[in-house]
Amino acid sequence: MYKLLIFDWDGTVIDSAARIISSMQRSALDLGLEPLDAEAIRNIIGLGLPEAIQALVPGIDAAGIEGMRERYAHYYVTGDDTPTHLFAGARGSLESLHLKGYRLAVATGKNRHGLDRVFAQTGLGYLFELSRCADETTSKPDPHMLHEILQQTGVDVSQALMIGDTEYDLEMGHRAGMATVAVSYGAHHIDRLKPWRPVLEIDNFPELEHWLDEQTLS
Description:
Helix content is 48%, strand content 14%.
C-alpha cells in the first residue's frame, strides 16, 4: 500500500528536544534577549530556524535572526553537552524497513549541514534515498518539500506516508494530500496531532513497522 516512508527527524527519529531547548535559551541570553520559555521553544520544534526564531522573538530584525542562528548553531553543535539519542527501536526498525524494500526519505526543519552531520554521527544516512531540509526549500507546514520528494522519487502521493511528531508535520502531509502517522512521544502532545486525522498513532517507533506488516498481509 505504501512504497515511500517520509520521516521527520527531531522528535521522531531522535530525541533532541532538551538540547534544542537549552541551545535556544542560551542563545537568547547571549544576545541579551528576554529568557525564552521551554514550552514555547518546544512548540516551534519542526519549523525552519528563521521561522522558529521569529515565532519566539516577535519583531526581531534580520540582524537579530542571524545572531540567533549563529549562537544556536554554536551551542547545538559544540557548546551544549545536553545528550541526544535515537528513540528506542528507531535504528532497528529503519534498517528492517529498508531491507523490506521500503523507500525512505527525510523531511526536516534542520538545515542541510545539521542533517548531514547527524546522518554521519548515527550512521543512518545510507538508509535514506533522499532528504529535504528547511534551508533548501519552504519551511513546514508548507507542503513544498513533500512535493519535491514525490517529484524526485516518482512515487504517487497515495503511496507515500509522512511520519512526524508535530502538528507542522501532519499539517504539511495533509496539505500535500498525503496520509500521515502521528508520533505521540515527540515534541507536541498527541492531542495537537489528532485534528489532522492521521491514519495511525504510535507510542513507540517499532509500532510503525508492525502496522505496515499488517497492511501488507491484509
